Protein 1
Amino acid sequence: MKNSKNFIFEEDEALPMKNAHYFDDDTDQVDLKAKYEKPKQPNWLFRRIYILTWIRHYDREKAISDLIAGITLGLTIIPQSIAYAALAGRSSEYGLYTAFIGSIIYVFFGTIPQVSIGPTSLMSLMVLQYCYEKPIEIVIVLAFLAGCVELIMGIFQLGFIVSFIPSAVNKAFTTGTSIIVALCQIKNLLGVKLKGIPTPKAFFENIKVADAIVGITCFLILLALRQLSSVKFKKESPATRRLKKLLWYISISRNALVVFTCGMIAYFWIQKSSFDAIPITLSSKVDSGIPTIKLPPFAFIHGNRTYVFSDICRELGSGILVVPIVAVLANVAIAKAFVKDGILDASQEMLTLGICNVAGSFFSAMPTCGAFTRSAVSQASGVRTPMAGIYTGIIVLSALSILTPYFQYIPKSSLSAVLIAAVIFMVDLKPLTELWKTNKKDFISWLGCVIVCLAAGVEMGLLYGIILNMIFVLLRLGKPKLEVNLKKCDNLIYVHIKPMSDIYYTGVELIRTEIRSACFLYRNDFPIVLDCSRFMLFDSTFLEMLNAVAKDLRENNVLLILQFFPDKHKEFLNENSNIRFANDRTLSELIVKT
């Protein structure tokens, strides 16, 4: 079978299949179309307001599963939100605002039950990079603009942009970002208050012993609690299963346990003495209360300066495009990891993310996207529908209204320990060995992207990876692989040229060169058969090349046979008497006849 599109069975090759059912032309045919046709897509409104597709089938069993998953996720997202707000250089309440609105909005529009929208280390790092020491109003406007870009990408179905970011670059970007987050938090972990990048001597001289003890102790406890979920028992029994479930809950609640325990110790210490007496660095005071709904601050006064919208855009620069693209990349990657049946509506996920960010800007939230760690917690908690986000949002809202006065007692070093313990497991160094063995180009992309991320920033690292891989693609299109062989058919010999990859207009000159080289090598003694099955996008460049090659071959009395050439384009070549068309069946007949 030479080509799956044109194969023919000879009489002695056609063998009956086991258990096959045969029909004569006169018998009733099976209605295959009705049996195998694609299911009808839901109404446009149902696909966009996705809650309408599953709320009708919501029952008590799903509600209980979502309640458990929502509460579990709430205990995870609260300490993470506080820590990610600190990473972005903002006070704790802004992280909680982001967690609250993201969890609620995704319930109505999200398609993947496991996805948890809220503050993430990636978005916090983006905020830190583009809004460092800038007013909080600029962060809120960044969330609004990022949401608008994501909405536009969803409306115009620009999800294919993510396809230009290969897996190697994605892994390198995640690894580089995780290393940057960990390095940024080491100073807070050890109580170092120096700005910028200090010298090693200055760094060690400024380590605050009390903060270092608290931070390192919290970090080790978090690593130990993380291992509880993987504890195995020799014998399975109801008691061991319950104990295993208890250990799992303790493990996924480790961030909350560590942060709240440290905060309680600091609180009671201060109650017995004073703020000045405590030797560790605490978080800043947090404004309590539920966030108020208000328009994003497109114009505001900060210090002695008045900012208008154009000033804010200049301050944000490339962040207006980089932040939403990075958010979409992360969100789609997480959604793909948890989607069922491999069917993902990427446009709907982009629309949902855009709505979350735009709506979040009305609640003073930071830019947001999905978090893989929290999504994994949702999956392990048995989440059934996005309704779990309602319970998570209620828990976050309760924390905002009740617990915010106590957030100022949380040690900064404990939050840094939470961040470092979360991101170190996202550092993936396996590509160092795997890609080196399998694909050197991907290895160069991965290593270069990590280095550029660390040296010049995450957005430059991402841009480097995309541009480098586009160069690789262009080189492949410009130099496609061709297989040139002499073949024999009914005692007649011909030169067969077959592309081993898809051919676009960038590769036509290489084909022309190969045909000329083959003619020179074989002294114009044999006809040329060119396999056109992998020719893509027939345009004027293709047709001009084929006409020019046929003209050259005619002068040397060499026939050009185009194999598997599309019928709709034949009329543009019919005037040239030196061109013939053939498939597998007619090729031998044509060569013999010629």
Protein 2
Amino acid sequence: MAFRQSSKQRHRGPDQTGLCVNDEYGFVLVQERLSIVGVKTGRQPLTSTNGMTHLVANGEIYNFLHMASLINDALKFEYYTPRSDCDVLVAFYELFGADRLLQIVRGMFAFVMYDCSTHRLLVARDPVGIVPLYYGWDDAGSLWFASELKCLVGCCAEVNVFPPGHSYFGPRESFVPKPYFQALWMTEISTTRVDLELLKHHLESAVESHLQSEVPFGALLSGGLDSSLIASIATRILRARTDNSSFRLKTYSIGLEGESPDLTYARMVADHIGSHHTEVRFTIPEGIDLVRDAVYYAETYDVTTIRCIVAVMLLARAIRSEGIKVVLSGEGADELFGGYLYFHRAPSAAEFHRETVRRVRGLHLSDCLRANKGCAAWGLELRVPFLDTDFLQHVMSIRPEDRAPGIPSHDDHSALEKRILRQAFADGNYLPSEVLWRQKEQFSDGVGYAWIDAIAQWASKRVTQTEYAAAADRFPFNTPTTKEAFYYRKLFEQMFPGESFARTVQRWIPRTDWGCSEDPSGRKQDVHRGHNRREQE
């Protein structure tokens, strides 16, 4: 049954399916593999040399070479060669134990390990939740884990999101996830001033750590600040690494036929950094055709996520068709630096900080979910250097007065969101000034303003007034507040029946108590440069 249920997420790992059935110890492990590091040697499930510890893992361990060196230092008279980046998890656990493993590992990951010698289960998810993980129990009392919710439909009545930064180590009968990742910025407000050079260094180091791959890779390029910076930094690093000044990173952008702010700026960045650039264009009918698939693959009914993931899936399919398996992207910067336009309305520095903490801790249910699952729908891995653990720790430890938008002055740039990130890369010709100082456009807006209007109208027309009037009775949890939201909720209920599944979803909305519009589109915020013009029309 586990093999059959896992087939529902085979799109995530189309290269290989690995199976381990252990009747003696009562567990089954199935892994759908997208081979990127250790292509020929890293097939999963991975088993220790003594045959007693078994692992399935999803994601990338970015410091696996460092962990391998620590393993070799401890072995002294033997030499350990990792079969893949995830293989170090088994070897490191056996030598140093679960606690030290979770303290030192860096990457985006969700893994399940079973130690037959101690009858203990080790489950962990990265600090942000870049990689998804769910769990549930079936009627027989068996504990299930899966990267995607759909694998638990039909076998688990009660399901839960495995929280980011949490782990469990112990007998399966006592399973309760507990936090292993805790940071001062989660509860305290820093007074440390920004050091722009240090900020720049940390981001460059994060990007470099995310470039390990044995397969072709590229970068998403929306034309906004975040993805453009990542692509520019990666290009410089790869040119230096290969001693090839003419190296061209493959970059990709998407937008509506005939109307897309992002395509214009992405083309400008591609020309500036000398990338091999591809534009993917889609029509509104093509996007509408994917709405049902968007709900199925995203496993959510959140309006923002559905609006966004349609374009992500269209772009991922085009990229994968070129043989690319890995892409870099700019997710996470808006949460760390308060980049969403509603942050301009933060009533105080303390409230600004608390809201960035809330957004970072909710990434696994919003941007990370959309980016990971939208790309994984076509067997494409997405990496997010802004959410590197060490970079995350550095940025969130900067005082909120520096991370927040400044006070408007004669310098138009001082009031922009993410200003310290822009300032850190203002010198060195990383980006065209038009992009470096471009105002935030949310991805679903940037692909073409007409897309948001069209999908909202299309979805709303599929809900009658009678249906909508009964929304609170039909959906008492996360009751839809628009007909568009109601339609997505109906689709979700068809695919993922039961309130337990509905409770895995979090709605993304701005802070209405700050006087912001509830509509997640950035255009609805009064600080958007097109807002006042539209109000006058």
Protein 3
Amino acid sequence: MAESSTLIDSNLLVAKALARAGVDRMFGVVGIPVTSLANRAVALGIRFIAFHNEQSAGYAASAYGYLTGVPGVLLTVSGPGCVHGLAGLSNAAVNGWPMVMISGSCDQKDFGRGDFQELDQIAAVKPFVKFSVKAKDIKEIPNCVFSVIDQARSGKPGGCYLDIPSDVLHQTVTESEANKLLDDAESGRKVVESVRSVTKDEIAKAISLIRKAERPLIVFGKGAAMARAEGELKDLVEKTGIPFLPTPMGKGLLPDTHELAATAARSLAIGKCDVAVVVGARLNWLLHFGEPPKWSKDVKFILVDIDEGEIELRKPYLGLVGDAKRTLKVLNKEIKDDPFCLGRSHPWVEAITTKAKDNVLRMEAQLAKDVVPFNFLTPMRIIRDAIRGLGSPAPILVSEGANTMDVGRSVLVQMEPRTRLDAGTWGTMGVGLGYCIAAAVASPDRLVVAVEGDSGFGFSAMEVETLVRYQLAVVVIVFNNGGVYGGDRRSAEDITGPFKDDPAPTSFVPGAAYHVLIEAFGGKGYLVGTPDELKSALDEAFAARKPAVINVTIDPYAGAESGRMQHKN
């Protein structure tokens, strides 16, 4: 049979390369010059989720990479579209999530002459990527596509960028030549070594240190979640009897209700432990940099991290460079050969469990009160109980906002791995709807529940139309307290000057009808202000598994400015 002489363009070739690389989902905003690329991808079986704004689409792509382990792909137009996409790309970089941004760009021959949406996009993305490449000719496309996908998930995951000029997108090759280009590129893919394996000597040192510790603690974060290390963590915790503390997005790797969970005794756990095994979590601001006064000055850190640079930066007592799952598997095997366990009556375990139970009882006493107008605790308790009532598979929780996220982290319970998405390492506001869409696309068997402050919701609120358009099982709960932190909290002396009659910088329209926004697109909206109204709305929305917004009226003076970060503001 004669080889096909049918011509195919770069749009189709990119789509074919992505499909061969294992990509089956894309997020983005179409327009000049990438609309055809999106259409070709859809025709090949790649689901394209079209957004209103590249920022939200980028956040979705970054979270999709975290949830699935497959790089999330963001498609943008040139110039401003690329710039908007940097939000998601930078978010992936800081959190260590695999993501690829593909952008069209101006014609190569017209660069530097003021072409339409002209920008040196390779330079623009440089601070936020592990690897970037421009396809300067159609024949380079397969290699470029495979390179960005492979680099995004190798070693410490992160963002990568592929630039495709408009003139290249219009180039063509025969179908037979395209298939040969794809075959050659695929066969020539280099297996990028993820990370080195820990040595037996390093493992022996770690076990010796843990065994001799009087007050050991295991800390784990979203790096362990990314590595799918929940099984190995469970083995380590339950074989040794060591209490554990998850970071916010590490919650759920082991159930929050586990008898060795130290979350409710966090200050005691980190303040008194003498050896801390930190797995897939960075000693950054979220963990007080591992320094006094929050931590003991004598604590010895065993840091397990995929990134050797992180070990070098933190200078722990012992650094184990490696994938969390593989490293813990080796650690557990060595412990099994010579087991030890603290036991429930161990003074350290007793101290942690007693303190945790006391703090939980105090919190439950506060939560038991029905406060109307709502504070943050009453609706959060009702939401917690409604989510727990759904059982397994547990919903994926998305949380952002100052007070809303802070209170939710303490009240809402995570029972399963990778079921909490929040502002993350960077404290990024505006991620909410993008994360919701990513979660719904990545895990269609799970309900997605967003618990958002009204300020956080506002960053991406228009994407509720995207929820309705794709009929995604997402319920968005907005804590509406009238502004950033809660309306106008200025003192009398601050209300002065020629624009003193303007609303406060922290104020929104009082009583904003956020629930009506989704109704404009055919979704379901609820306005609630009492416990019975909220329970009814949650029951109905959770059962329907359809796009919904529940607008929860909160006392504007509940909560605190900047949540728990007042010292920074």
